[in-house]
Amino acid sequence: MITVLPGDGIGPEMVAHLQRVFRFANVPVDFEEIPLSSDVEEDVFENAIISVQRNGIAIKGNIESRFNDPAFKSRNVELRRRLDLYANVLHCASIPTVRCRHKDIDVVLIRENTEGEYSGLEHEATKGVVESLK
């Protein structure tokens, strides 16, 4: 079972495409969809946390952050904090059968997710000046 968190904007559309690809490729998984977005009530957010903890895996669409609203609590930051998702690992590799300008690319990027700029402890002190608390 995979938890699916569709998110906002293009997120639900992208997640739907991924689910179709899995279905057509006969990937033997079931999805538990939790309608998590930036505007959901706290109980839906809690259900998302419980689902991810139970299933141990999730596919998350884009969840918007509102940087212009100081009272807004980012669902992305809360997910990272509550689930202790301390690292964001991104693997970028060229595909041998796809023509492209740069061949033999194989890079792994690892970004720390829960401290510093990604902790969500920042605010706009004055217009255009963001203060990040570490």
UniProtKB/TrEMBL annotation:
Keyword list, A-Z: Tricarboxylic acid cycle
Segments forming domain Isopropylmalate dehydrogenase-like: 1-134
Gene3D superfamilies per UniProt: Isopropylmalate Dehydrogenase
Alphabetized Pfam families for the sequence: Iso_dh
GO CC list: mitochondrion
SUPFAM superfamilies reported in the protein's UniProt record: Isocitrate/Isopropylmalate dehydrogenase-like
UniProt cross-references to InterPro entries, sorted A to Z: IsoPropMal-DH-like_dom
Record SMART domains: Iso_dh (SM01329)
GO terms, biological process: isocitrate metabolic process; tricarboxylic acid cycle
Coiled-coil residues: none
Sequence similarity: Belongs to the isocitrate and isopropylmalate dehydrogenases family.
PANTHER family: DECARBOXYLATING DEHYDROGENASES-ISOCITRATE, ISOPROPYLMALATE, TARTRATE, ISOCITRATE DEHYDROGENASE [NAD] SUBUNIT, MITOCHONDRIAL
Protein name per UniProt: Isopropylmalate dehydrogenase-like domain-containing protein
